[in-house]
Amino acid sequence: MRLLLVRHGQTPSNLDGLLDTAPPGAGLTELGERQAAALPEALADEDIEAVYASSLLRTRLTAAPLAAARGLDVIVRDGLREVVAGELEMERGDSPRGQRYLRTVLAWAAGDTALRMPGGESGAQTLARLDAVVAEAAEGGARTAVMVGHGAAVRLWTAARAHNLDADFAAVHPLRNTGVVVLEGSPADGWKALSWAGALVSPAGESGPTGRPVPEE
Fold first, then answer.
1. What is the pTM of this model?
2. What is the pLDDT of residues 39-70, one digit of tens each?
3. Active site residue: 30, 46, 49, 82, which one?
4. Given CA atoms 172, 178, 182, 188 in this order, what sign does their dihedral have?
5. Distance between CA 63 and CA 148 in Å, rounded?
6. Do 49 and 142 form a contact (C-beta atoms < 8 A)?
7. Which of 205, 213, 200, 137 is nearest to 163 (CA)?
8. What CA dihedral angle connects 44, 47, 51 and 52, to 10 degrees?
9. CA nearest neighbour of 36 among 74, 9, 6
10. Element of type H or E holding 154
């Protein structure tokens, strides 16, 4: 199975640097709408058979043009939602409290999945809900599926599940809005990341607090 993980288009909360993870979440900026409209052409060479999005507004708006271009419905799954910020909701991502969010996510990616986000989920809970949606897509028989999700969730799941990436990679490779991570594999056999915003070794840019490298101590 070929799996394309796409970060949503730009939102006002990205511009303001806020940890906006609660439903329904912000919509798209004008740039975000243009980014979403560009996805069908950007993914024109992919034989896409299913398009998923999280329950948050920004992912559904981002997925809609691609699904329409392929004659598909957007399959909305709450399990794809962003890593829940809990008590850190709407904190600035570059604040001391906001930085705890990404540090927690990267600790999960490194294997400390029992750790809990303040007022939120544990890493094990977050990965389980993401795994469930991926498993559903695989069981559905789609040879290529797109999942429009969120920056921190994509970085976490890919670092935890792709055998050729790790938490160190996720820490220094933020994913820009509508950046794409391409993987191949299956839930049973595991996953290999083929590209990260076009390359496995180049930074993908940044936009918003869940798409920033962890500052050095």
1. 0.91
2. 999 999 999 999 999 999 999 999 999 999 99
3. 82
4. positive
5. 6
6. yes
7. 200
8. -110
9. 9
10. helix 151-161
